[in-house]
Amino acid sequence: MTEYKDILVETHGRVGLVRLNRPGALNALSPQLMEELWDALSGFDQDEAVGAMVIAGNERAFSAGADIKAMADATLVEMLNRSLTDAWHRVAQLRKPVIAAVSGYALGGGCELAMACDLIVASETAQFGQPEIQIGVIPGAGGTQRLTRILGKHLAMEMVLNGRFLSAQEALQHGLVNRVVPVEHYLEEALQLAAQIADRAPVAVRLGKEAVNKSYEMTLAEGLALEQKYFYMLFATEDRQEGMQAFIEKRKPRWKGR
Where are the domains of the chain? Predict the structure, then answer.
């Protein structure tokens, strides 16, 4: 297994877990950490033994944001050449579902990383925010776009322009997270949710994830046509036949991923 400096990698059954591991910097997302994160997640994405993934920090912080020290003296050209935000977009494009297990701070790039995931399980102490305005910039890895789509214009505007934080309960109320649980259970809850999804038909999970994500980029008519196409496509899989037969026979299906 690859040795990493800033992340810890584990497997729990069919779930791949990546823990951000820069506790002294509140898991600041340095270029090296993001490259390591992408390497680990892409490896899980290609591993047939893994059905879903979880990204977690620690109880104090999921991540307090991008590593400002790595950007403080950068020029425009250097930022363009580094493509620092590409890693966030690559996370969003993974084929398998990714769950963010968030406790404590999820700020700036940390909030954007959580939103790049497909589901978010939050502890009661979780705080979400885009405070980039306080250092003279704006979110650059999806904050202005994903927040607006999830929260609506006015709340997203307050977070982007005035650095407002959302508590875990506010995030739940506005649809930013899937559930809020006590701190001592947040990672267990995320792993359990990932395990449940990993236990579904793999091809159907992949196409379901893709269809939901594409809905943000299409008109309703285009989205409905894509959904119908994927629905019909799944009738060519062995898993569809197995799933329906198992339902009729009142037994647990045995998925093959084909």
Answer: 7-198, 202-249
Here the tokens at position 153 are 């214009």
CA distances from 254 to 7, 208, 241 (A): 33, 19, 11
Q: What is the pLDDT of residue 181?
A: 97
66 is catalytic: yes
Active-site choice (109, 129, 143, 243): 109
Q: How far is residue 177's CA from residue 42's CA, in Å, rounded to a whole number?
A: 24
The phi and psi torsions of 102 (rounded to 5 degrees) equal -110, 125
Backbone angles phi, psi at 162, to 5 degrees: -130, 5
Which residue in the list 51, 132, 143, 156 is annotated as catalytic?
132
Catalytic residue of the set 52, 57, 108, 112: 112
CATH topology of domain 7-198: 2-enoyl-CoA Hydratase; Chain A, domain 1 (3.90.226)
Active-site hit among 40, 52, 64, 66: 66
Paired residues of 87 in beta bridges: none
Q: Indicate if 109 belongs to the active site.
A: yes
Convert the pLDDT of each residue in 146-186 to its tens digit.
Answer: 999 999 999 999 999 999 999 999 999 999 999 999 999 99
Q: Which CATH architecture has domain 202-249?
A: Orthogonal Bundle (1.10)
The secondary structure of residue 29, as a DSSP letter, is B
Kindly report whether the global pTM for this prediction surpasses the value 0.90. yes
